[in-house]
């Protein structure tokens, strides 16, 4: 149970001054809180023996007021210091998670669902923060403050009475331990169910148009209701154990009160203790309710925090698949890009997605990559982007193995427009500026002209300031592609990768974009993967992939003369275009 504190020792060591001050202040406040009951007992004894004077009463009242002010001031300090530390832990851990997410490769995201990662970044972090705040409070109160109370009751009133009243404590420890184990197991299940529900909600929102198109609203609603019911049942299972803490504590505290009052009254009649002592003792018993209850809360909070921390640590401790080189080699300029006998298979598969690829690209060339769906075009780009480990053979830039070049440097050279364009829930301007944060409107309009998006921006209600909506929902497929192209163009990268990035635009627009590309990127490398072969006819070199192998290569003219798949596909597409035009 207490292992959660050991797992968080890196945080407590860093903020040891903050937590030391908070704990000491909490203990001082607790100690001050023990004084008023003794003053009350003293006053009652003075009244009983008729020795209370107005001067003594005034001293007692002033003493109470001073204690209240001091106790409030110290309590504010420990409360602020302790719980602000918990907020810092939550912020710090969330930053670590996001930083980790940004380093992760597609392998990680295929293992963990988005909804589950969101649950770990929200609910689990709240539970961890509560451990560093409320958990520390209950730990101090259930140990130090409880022992202070017991010592005060035993040393200043009666050890016999104190030990008798504390008989229920061992019973409480056994019961709380059983509750804690059950809370840990059930809370872990509840958090996992919450993560699955999150993922289902995300998929439903993203696919809402498809759901409507196939009239699947009722089925989706039914599926979601089943998931929410599962989350509800698992949280109810947690709540059932949680709900047993308080009544159990009340029964045990009530038992302590019964013993305290019964045995205490007998001791008063025997003149072992005074009436004032009995009143003070019962006030202390009342104060003991919180420390005893804090034991249950401590177990509850620590078990929840432990379960959540295990889930978060599992994510953070996931090792990066693609690692930075131990001794990176600095490359000043991209002169060549080479694939030398490169073979590759995705993690968990035995079939090669790329097989013995040899390709030599000289700076300034445009390379066309074509082939059937699933031939390996995108995989080739992912290896150049270093998104996967396990490359067999050698991929090099300027004759330096890319595994010896830092990831930041490699990706700083590359402008990538993937098949599925990612639009952020921001304005058109901000989406394009993602490629160059300080880009002016003049630069933005220039790249929009290259991407044939100027006419479209005029039709949008607020021009460049138009919000594209989540995932670019307010833009058409062709518009999203062209915004993504503009975002890559404004970066002016050494290597531009277009992965079937013109599929949603018409042939005329595609032709204009290609013409602009040829003029703008004469001295820089461009890699174009396409199903529509008209996008690569201008390329300096074209390779045809089939089942991960290069089956044809050459210029457009050379491939047309080969009488192979390329010629057959090109002629078929030309016929299709003529039919559309006619």
Strand content: 5-15%
* General shape: elongated
User: What is the second-level CATH architecture of the largest domain?
Assistant: Up-down Bundle
**Termini Cα gap:** 76 Å
Q: What spatial order of strands do you see in the largest sheet?
A: 6-7-8-3-9-10
Structural class: alpha/beta
Multimeric organization: single chain
The average pLDDT score comes to 87
Number of separate domains = 2
Sheet with most strands: 6 strands, mixed
- In CATH, the topology of the largest domain is named ABC transporter transmembrane region fold
What would you give as the CATH superfamily of the largest domain? ABC transporter type 1, transmembrane domain
Q: Measured on Cα atoms, how large is the radius of gyration?
A: 35 Å
Q: Look at the structure and give the CATH class of the largest domain.
A: Mainly Alpha
Low-confidence stretches: none
| Helix coverage percent | 55-70%
| Number of distinct helices | 22
Could you tell me the number of beta strands? 10
Subcellular location: Cell membrane
Membrane topology: Multi-pass membrane protein
InterPro entries: AAA+_ATPase, ABC1_TM_dom, ABC1_TM_sf, ABC_transporter-like_ATP-bd, ABC_transporter-like_CS, P-loop_NTPase, Type_1_exporter
Protein name: Multidrug ABC transporter permease/ATP-binding protein
């Amino acid at each position: 149970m207490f292992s959660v504190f050991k797992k968080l020792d890196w945080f407590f060591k860093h903020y040891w001054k903050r937590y030391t001050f908070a704990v000491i202040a909490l203990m001082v406040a607790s100690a001050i809180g023990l004084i008023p009951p003794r003053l009350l007992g003293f006053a009652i004894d003075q009244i009983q023996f008729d020795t209370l004077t107005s001067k003594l009463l005034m001293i007692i009242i002033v003493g109470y007021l001073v204690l209240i002010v001091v106790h409030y001031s110290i309590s504010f300090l420990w409360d602020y210091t302790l719980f602000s530390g918990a907020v810092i832990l939550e912020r710090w851990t969330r930053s670590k998670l996001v930083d980790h997410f940004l380093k992760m490769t597609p392998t990680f995201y295929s293992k963990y669902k988005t909804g589950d990662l969101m649950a770990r970044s929200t609910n689990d972090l709240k539970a961890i923060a509560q451990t560093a705040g409320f958990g520390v409070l209950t730990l101090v109160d259930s140990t130090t403050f409880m022992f202070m109370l017991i010592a005060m009751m035993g040393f200043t009133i009666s050890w016999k009475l104190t030990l008798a009243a504390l008989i229920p404590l061992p019973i409480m420890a056994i019961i709380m331990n059983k509750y804690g184990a059950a809370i840990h197991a059930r809370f872990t299940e509840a958090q996992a169910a919450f993560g699955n529900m999150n993922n289902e909600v995300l998929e439903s929102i993203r696919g809402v148009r498809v759901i409507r198109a196939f009239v699947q609203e009722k089925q989706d609603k039914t599926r979601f209701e089943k998931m929410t019911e599962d989350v509800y049942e698992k949280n109810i299972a947690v709540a059932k154990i949680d709900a047993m803490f308080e009544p159990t504590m009340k029964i045990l505290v009530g038992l302590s009160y019964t013993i305290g009052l019964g045995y205490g009254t007998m001791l008063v009649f025997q003149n072992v203790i005074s009436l004032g002592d009995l009143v003070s003792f019962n006030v202390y018993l009342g104060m003991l309710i919180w420390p005893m209850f804090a034991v249950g809360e401590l177990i509850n909070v620590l078990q929840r925090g432990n379960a959540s921390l295990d889930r978060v640590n599992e994510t953070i401790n996931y090792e990066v698949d693609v690692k930075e080189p131990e001794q990176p080699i600095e490359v000043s300029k991209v002169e060549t890009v080479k694939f030398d006998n490169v073979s590759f298979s995705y993690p968990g598969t035995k079939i090669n997605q790329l097989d013995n690829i040899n390709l030599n690209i000289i700076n300034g060339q445009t390379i066309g990559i074509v082939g059937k769906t699933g031939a390996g075009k995108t995989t080739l780009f992912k290896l150049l982007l270093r998104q996967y480990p396990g490359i067999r053979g050698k991929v090099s830039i300027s004759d330096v193995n890319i595994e010896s070049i830092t990831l930041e440097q490699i990706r700083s050279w590359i402008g990538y427009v993937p098949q599925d364009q990612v639009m952020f829930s921001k304005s058109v301007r901000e989406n394009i500026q993602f490629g160059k944060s300080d880009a002016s409107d003049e630069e933005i309009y220039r790249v929009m002209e290259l991407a044939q998006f100027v006419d479209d921006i005029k039709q949008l209600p607020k021009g460049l300031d138009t919000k594209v909506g989540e995932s670019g929902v307010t833009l058409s497929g062709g518009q999203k592609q062209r915004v993504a192209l503009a975002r890559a163009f404004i970066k002016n990268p050494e290597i531009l990768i277009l992965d079937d990035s013109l599929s949603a635009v018409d042939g005329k627009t595609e032709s204009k974009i290609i013409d602009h590309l040829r003029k703008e990127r004469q001295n820089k490398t461009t890699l174009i993967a396409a199903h529509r072969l008209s996008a690569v006819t201008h390329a300096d070199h074209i390779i045809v992939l089939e089942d991960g192998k290069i089956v044809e290569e050459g210029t457009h003219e050379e491939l047309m003369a080969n009488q192979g798949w390329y010629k057959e596909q090109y002629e078929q597409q030309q016929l299709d275009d003529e039919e559309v035009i006619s």
